[in-house]
């Protein structure tokens, strides 16, 4: 689970880099997931989860920040709001430094609370991570609705993310952990269900979008062919180009 969830964003980063576009990929999704690494990393460290589940949110945050920086650079690449390459890189670096510093402070604060039998801060970070991870998918569903298809997303990324959520849920079971953690299970399980929904929508909407594209292209081709036939038959006057 840690391996899959540590590197699952890489296919999306490669996909966006090759396409030179992040159209269809929600900037808000990547931002929410980047920020979610802060409370999730804090929660996993304080709860003393197994080492892979402690490493995973930090790798997740760094790579999600890369995908977010790509959105800043590519989403408005032809508009006045786009970030230059170096602006995007420095935004990524600054964001990671800020999140790392905040998490360090929050970990010490939550551990101090636990020493005084105050679990509220730890619970808050657990709930916040669930809200950000699952809530971040809402803007992505809006992008799907706007495009009437699942575009801009790497299906390899989605598959790895889904499988990572499944095995991470299994790792939290009583077979591997001293106690069952409800919040982490809700976060991982909710993510799995949300991404299954994206696959279902892709299976329904993408074939329809492909048919619409073919229907739009076919009349154009037909009209061009008819124009050529009529001109060759002498039914249209020759076009002079000045």
Automatic annotation (TrEMBL):
It is a multi-pass membrane protein. The keyword Transcription regulation does not apply. The chain crosses the membrane at residues 25-46, 58-77, 89-108, 120-138, 150-173, 185-205. GO terms for cellular component: membrane. It holds the Pfam family PQ-loop. Keywords: Membrane, Transmembrane, Transmembrane helix. The keyword Membrane applies. InterPro entries: LAAT-1, PQ-loop_rpt. Residues 215-242 are annotated as: Disordered. It is found in: Membrane. This is PQ-loop-domain-containing protein.
């Amino acid at each position: 689970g840690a391996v899959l969830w540590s590197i699952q964003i890489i296919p999306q980063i490669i996909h966006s880099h090759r396409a030179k576009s992040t159209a269809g990929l929600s900037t808000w999704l990547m931002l929410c997931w980047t920020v979610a690494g802060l409370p999730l990393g804090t929660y996993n460290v304080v709860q003393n989860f197994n080492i892979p589940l402690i490493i995973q949110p930090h790798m997740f945050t760094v790579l999600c920040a890369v995908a977010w920086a790509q959105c800043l650079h590519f989403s408005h690449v032809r508009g006045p709001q786009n970030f230059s390459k170096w602006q995007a890189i420095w935004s990524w670096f600054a964001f990671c430094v800020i999140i790392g510093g905040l998490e360090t402070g929050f970990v010490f604060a939550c551990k101090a609370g636990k020493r005084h039998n105050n679990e509220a801060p730890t619970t808050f970070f657990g709930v916040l991570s669930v809200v950000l991870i699952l809530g971040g998918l809402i803007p992505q569903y809006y992008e799907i609705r706007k495009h009437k298809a699942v575009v801009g997303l790497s299906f390899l990324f989605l598959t790895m993310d889904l499988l990572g959520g499944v095995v991470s849920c299994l790792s939290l079971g009583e077979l591997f952990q001293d106690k069952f953690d409800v919040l982490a299970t809700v976060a991982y399980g909710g993510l799995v269900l949300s991404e299954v929904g994206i696959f279902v929508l892709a299976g329904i909407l993408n074939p329809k979008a492909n048919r619409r594209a073919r229907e739009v292209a076919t009349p154009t081709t037909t009209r061009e062919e008819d124009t050529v036939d009529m001109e060759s038959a002498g039914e249209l006057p020759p076009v002079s180009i000045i």
